Amino acid sequence: MALAEAGARGRLLRWPRVLLFGDSITEFCFGGQRRDVLFDTCLCFRKCDVVNRGISGYNTRWAKLILPRLITESTGADSIAAVTIFFGANDSALKELNPKQHVPLEEYAANLKSMVQYLKSVDITADKIILITPPPLQESAWEKACLAKGDKLNRCNATTGQYAQACVQVAKECGTDVLDLWSLMQKNQDFSSYLSDGLHLSAKGNSFVAGQLWSRLEHKLSALPSLLPYWRDVDHTNPEASLL
User: Fold this and answer.
1) Cβ neighbours of residue 187 under 8 Å, at least 6 residues apart?
2) CA angle in degrees (0–180, nearest 5) for 31-69-182
3) Given 16, 118, 129, 174, which residue has the most CB atoms within 10 angstroms?
4) For 109, left (φ over 0), alpha (ψ -120 to 50), or beta?
């Protein structure tokens, strides 16, 4: 059978997407443990694609302008299996030392709510949305990174915690799931090993996030069908019957 004929007979294969939307902490996760767990697991079972839309340096003020360009009404709710919104590490930068990235706490919460409301408006239901708080900040390590660039320490963990609490509250109000990294990473343990430079995640940190995130994604993805049959189930004498 010619390829063109086969394509005409078979239905177009469209994998649902898990969209990871965030700042550099999301952008840099590809190639790390979080990528391995989410990307490879989803592909292994042929259930969905994992799309990384992490944008280094961005805050929620900018992210809310970008989101409608990533997911539109024409995208179709059926094509989105889940969306993670992972911002706050830049929003929580201290205004007097990093005014470009800083977003006031109240605006940060409003921006998160706005993004959730937008997703709902294009039929992405609350059960498909996961908000992720910023991780804790290891101040001494991040200060070294800042000093190496000729800057002063421009973030503090207590302030980051306020943004994390705001994120949790928005999730509660909007009815979405939430992954509170700021609390989980500090629970009864030294969290410094989860961070590569005091701000961004290390390989261990990405692995930790992957495990926590997968526990929330698994039930959302479990009902998705595998779009192609297992190879042992293909009729090798008549593959068209199995594959088209």
Assistant:
1) none
2) 50
3) 129
4) alpha
Catalytic entry in 24, 183, 202, 207: 24
Q: Encode pLDDT of 13-46 as tens digits.
A: 788 889 999 999 999 875 444 455 555 555 445 6
pLDDT at position 170? 98
Rounded CA-CA distance 217/18 in Å is: 9
pLDDT in tens, 84-129: 999 999 999 999 999 999 999 999 999 999 999 999 999 999 999 9
Is 197 assigned a catalytic role?
yes
Question: Catalytic site residue 102?
Answer: no
Out of 36, 49, 114, 197, the active site residue is 197
Percent of the chain with pLDDT over 90: 61
Catalytic residue, candidates 23, 177, 180, 200: 200
Whole-structure pTM value: 0.88
Domain boundaries, the chain: 14-242
